[in-house]
């Protein structure tokens, strides 16, 4: 399937439809086989002990996988997470951004399954792995985005 939204289009979509995350998450790369998104880590993402909190890591994975799916189906704002599983494997350092490397495992008409590995910027070992399923709403006649 072709790429319908590149990094610039996805970042513009986030800015217009999801401004609550657009300030901290951005799409850096969209390719046929993967998408890379960045969480710009700041003090609001930290938890006691000087590490990035689990909710921030989960949010990065969720937004990145959502964008990976939209890169293939277009700007369908109402595609929603229906299942998620995350494994936290290592403590991420507080002073580094996090990168989510996503790939779509299955893209159907009504469901998409994807995974993300979360890495510290410049790090080789993932700090988390996430698998998600998204429900894709049916297109309405005459309207590609619902």
Automatic annotation (TrEMBL):
Its EC number is 3.1.2.-. The keyword Hydrolase applies. Residues 49-124 form the Thioesterase domain. It is an enzyme of class 3 (hydrolase). One of its GO terms (molecular function) is hydrolase activity. Keywords: Hydrolase. The keyword Phosphoprotein does not apply. Pfam families: 4HBT. NCBIfam families: unchar_dom_1. Belongs to the thioesterase PaaI family. This is PaaI family thioesterase. It comes from Paracoccus fontiphilus.
């Amino acid at each position: 399937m072709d790429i319908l939204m590149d990094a610039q289009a996805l970042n513009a979509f986030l800015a217009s439809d999801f401004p609550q995350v657009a300030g901290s998450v951005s799409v850096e790369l969209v390719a046929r086989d993967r998408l890379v998104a960045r969480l710009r880590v700041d003090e609001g993402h930290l938890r006691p002990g000087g590490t990035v909190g689990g909710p921030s890591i989960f949010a990065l994975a969720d937004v990145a996988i959502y964008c990976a799916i939209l890169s293939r189906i277009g700007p369908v704002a109402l595609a929603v997470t229906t299942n998620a599983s995350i494994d936290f494997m290592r403590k991420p350092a507080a002073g580094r951004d996090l990168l989510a490397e996503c790939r779509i495992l299955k893209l159907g008409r009504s469901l998409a399954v994807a995974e993300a590995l979360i890495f510290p910027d410049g790090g080789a070992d993932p700090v988390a792995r996430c698998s998600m399923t998204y429900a894709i709403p049916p297109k309405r006649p005459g309207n590609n985005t619902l």
